Amino acid sequence: MSAQRFLAILVGMFLGTYLPRTVPLLFSTDRPLPRWLERWLKLVPYAALGALIFPGILSVDAERPWVGLLGGFAAAIVAWKWNNLLLTVALALLVVFLVR
């Protein structure tokens, strides 16, 4: 790959990721967001995290996807009840280890 092509790709990636984040901030600094939009935007990180985690849960054991589902279910219960990250991860790993 030539240096010019690499630079063109780099600039294109910069514009494709930086501009969509910056332009709304430049044009909406004096107006507050509607309340419904603020609530919706607060949920986006949780939805993105779920979209990243769920495929991993299903691929713990390709032949037996229920193994990962049991670990994910155990993690959800522990996270909901005790709100402890270390305990949540440890118990999910233990459940998957014992079931496998």
Question: How would you characterize the overall build of this protein?
Answer:
The protein has 100 residues and is mainly α. The chain folds into two domains: 31 residues; 68 residues, no CATH class. The chain is 82% helix and 0% strand. It is built from four helices and no strands. Helix 2 packs across helix 3 and helix 3 packs antiparallel against helix 4. The protein is flat. The N and C termini lie far apart (46 Å).
List the defining traits of the structure above.
4 helices, single chain, 0% strand, 100 residues, flat, 2 domains, mainly alpha
Distance between the termini: 46 Å
What is the number of domains?
2
H/E series: HHHH
Q: Helix/strand-derived class?
A: mainly alpha
* Biggest sheet statistics: none
Give the strand content. under 5%
Ordered list of secondary-structure elements with their pairings:
Blueprint: H1 3-27, H2 35-58, H3 65-82, H4 85-99
Helix pairs in contact: 2-3, 3-4
Q: Quick recap of the structure?
A:
This protein is an all-alpha fold. It has helices at 3-27, 35-58, 65-82, 85-99.
